[in-house]
Sequence to fold (318 residues):
Amino acid sequence: MSIDIGSLTNTMITGVRHAIGDRWSAIRALAEPELRKLAETLEDVQQLYASGRITADHAVQLVEMQRNTAISAVRTVEGLGVLTAREALDAAAHAAGAVVNRLVGFKLISATKEKPMAKEKEQEVPQQSTSKTPSQEPAKSSPTGRTKEGAVRPGSSTKSTSRPVKVQFKAGKDL
Amino acid sequence: MRKRAKAILLAALASIVSCSGYFMATYDPAVDGGATELQQKIDRFLTDLQQRAGTPAAAFDQHAAFYDDVRGDIQELRDLASRQRGNELTLQSLDLIENNVDKLEALHADGISVQEIDVVRTLFDTQFRMLVQLENAKKRKES
Fold:
């Protein structure tokens, strides 16, 4: 049994096109307004500084926050791109699967959509399937259900308790 | 025979590439929900801060604990996200949010204006929206 490589290639390309569709334009449509909005905030900061309503130090802090936010947007776009590329590869493998499997005589390529990898922790400890650690169970009101006791968390900073309060609030415009 | 070898090569290549560097973690509703709740928590805080502007109730020392609380929430989300491989982008996004929380804290300690809070709100809103978009994209891929 022989295979028509040209035909198989076309099958795979069709599969990829079908999988991606207008995804790339959707990613672009997401990224552009977000980055435009961030550019506007940069202009706001510039105006606040130019009008003397914020100090140079505050302007620098706000621009750094803006930079972090722009990186967040880029990371998301990157992630959406990876997911789309992954989907395209799956579609290509899926499209070629039936033809190639028949040719080689065994299931070399899975014809079904690949299942995502299960959580490693869940595989090791089945009782954690709710995605909460035992220490999170007595949660009160935190987003992830953690405890509110004063124990220092790993990675948690305690600097605010020791931070010298330089200016608590300023009369007029500031808090 | 030669075509058969090509086909096997093609199939093997597709399988290897599809299982390699393009791996992305699965959707975790705890991360998605936690991020949404944290966004609301920060937004409520900023609203409260704006409403109390110019009063002692808005002073930094009245709210110092909030920042540690938020950092704890972010750490919890990091712990959840780091349980899976392929979650590096989510972890980086959480680190960037934490970095902005640190900067907000510094601004607040130094005296933050209502106009500055508006800017900060927009930035946090974008950061969380981007994070939730990424999580939802994972969900869509699985469905």
About this structure: Residues 25-113 of chain A form one domain. Confidence is low (pLDDT under 50) at residues 114-141, 147-175 of chain A. Chain A touches chain B through 88 residues (CB under 8 Å). The helical segments of chain A are 5-20, 23-50, 56-104, 120-124, 159-162.
